[in-house]
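Exercise 3.2. Students should predict the tertiary structure of the chain below and write it as structure tokens, then compare their answer with the key that follows.

Predict this chain's 3D structure.
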Amino acid sequence: MKFGKEFVSQMVPEWQEAYLDYNSLKALLKDLLRFVQTRTPTSMASTPNGSALNRRVSLYRAFSGLTSRHRESPRAKEDEEILVSEDGEDGRYHTFVTVSDEERGYEVKFFNRLDDEFNKVVRFYKMKVKEVVEEADELSRQMDTLIALRLKVDNPMVDFGDGPNCAVHPINGRRAGGQHMDVIEEVETLENLERGENEPKTRKQEANGGIKGFKPPQLEILEHVKINVTPKTPRSTLKGCLNSDKQDLFSKKELRKAEEQMKQAFSEFYQKLRLLKSYCFLNQLAFSKIMKKHDKITSRNASKVHLHMMETSYLGTCDDVTRLMERVETTFIKHFANGNHRKGMKTLRPTARREKHRSTFFLGLFSGCSVALVVAIIVLIHARGLLESEGRDLYMENIFPLYSLFGFIVLHIVVFSANIYYWRRYRVNYSFIFGFKKGTELGYRQSFLMSSGLAVLALAGVLSNLDMEMDPRTKTFEAWTELVPLGLVIVVIGIILCPFNIMYRSSRFFLIQAVVHCVCAPLYKVTLPDFFLADQLTSQVQAFRSLEFYVCYYGWGDFLKRSHNCLDSNVYKTFYFIVAIIPYWIRSLQCLRRLVEEKDGMQGLNGLKYFSTIVAVAMRTSFDMKKGMTWKILAMTSSIVATLVSTYWDIVIDWGLLQRNSENRWLRDKLLIPNKSVYFVAMVLNVLLRLAWMQSVLGFREAPYIHRTALVAIVACLEIIRRGIWNFFRLENEHLNNVGKYRAFKSVPLPFNYYHDEGKSR
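Answer key:
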């Protein structure tokens, strides 16, 4: 792989604009190369084997020796006319090229761009280093408090003396928090004393003046902090509404929660340091590569002075990141991994998920089996003439809705697999956006593997349950085949809830957690995975109704005779309304929670959008059951309003498109897909697929050779496809917003709030 592609592949996606623009510099060198080639003699240019001639001539060049450290440039005198200086006022670097012929014009342009790019990199690196140093100070202060809390909880009767509020180090007498991670030395000495490990007398005298004079961290610091470790649960939300702020500051339970939060904060901070170190190294490597290309084209040695400039700049001399990484490793291993270096580093440096050949093998196997089963079902239907069978209507009214549930799920997973593929292709950092634990996120192969496996189970069930005629003797269908759909539902639910570490347990538990947050809205703090999942559920209304039909069909119907009275039950009709409204109601409550917490008026408008959809769904369902012109007018009006509002919100707010004054007219300033027509096609498809939901209002309930239940399933599938399109552009816009703010790390709440810092938001 060429360096340019490798350079791009290793970039932090959210920092892409802050890296050295290697491609633009390379393009300027290509212009310089073309100019140099035009000045070469025509005889050499016309030689068909010019490259071979150059190689043959090089055999007779003078030998410079094996021990010479720097090859002298054949244009050494001209090299001296390229100078680099640093402006003392703003710390910017400038390159001066004193020769002013036409070739130097190209070089001046190149060096001006190189200076701008290098200064950009140094400026960004300084800003990020300053941020991590400040964060390290805060983590040090948090560790001081955590240590004091540990001492209070583990040794409530210990005498801590009457020192100053700020802890004094027993090793060097400095105040705690004065240096990054100084608290390490303090706690190591304290733990040695607790274990009874004696130091040499001379060292004790030098460090502490004897054990009698030793003063561990003071508990007085706990008088100025408030523990912020209560999780955002329904219980904590209700307690907050009731103004119940009582908590036990010194319980072991609170200590464990604080330690868990600090562990997460250190882990995230370490990842930030790793990426910042990688940023420094990659830019240095790119700078040296581009200068070597320049020297190769111009046969000069300009890289010597520029590489020296890079090595002496802030980018080459600052070692704060490396020192912080070492101290974070020491702190984490000592205090959060019980001194186990391997365990601590495994947490700090999780390994990336390795692609396994068996996943690809089973993906191909299940996909082939799915295609084979589809072909077998089609052949069997045609051979038996099932489309003209008397039991066709009975099958479509009772069995088809049961299996259509699996079709909706499989299609949604397939579409999401395609989303993952294109997110990766266009470098959308979806794992960071969703907050997946590093190394546990599913790729498109794993996601597609799950959909193909479920498809095989469902299609095998359909094939075993294609009987259209009852047993003439018993006047019933076979019990085991009629129970296949119910068995499949139980199997799927069992796999999702399986506690064992099989079949992507971390991803399953992540999904379960998000579902619980959605069901309990607005009692949980709303995060992006929560409302993103709730949006997915709004496109699965027909799947929820299929689940309701499962309960009615197997609970109160006669499944052996494929008969039920669900549509005549008032309870069933009531829940038919409720299950269709629940997903939109969840999103409305989530918007309400965010409106209260974030004071963002847009969340209120978003909640009104979902409320208009609730009204539209209720009116359409009422018209579907009661008929009548009045219900039809109400359903038509509410559906038009909801469609217009939702379409505008999708395209303008969620996708960030239709910006009239942007660089890309009617789109947005930054786009990930080079072909702009894709965005316009997506906008048109979004409108058309939303209108598909109005088929029930306009009276298109049946089509030639298509049963009513099949038509409903097709419309539901169109909505799932629309949601898949929405998914890609919604996350693209979220990613670009993160890029604009250089936001590449999630914000981890710290466990302690200081009274004098309550006005600050963390």
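Discussion points: Residues 148 and 219 are 6 Å apart (CA to CA). Residues 357-741 form one domain.
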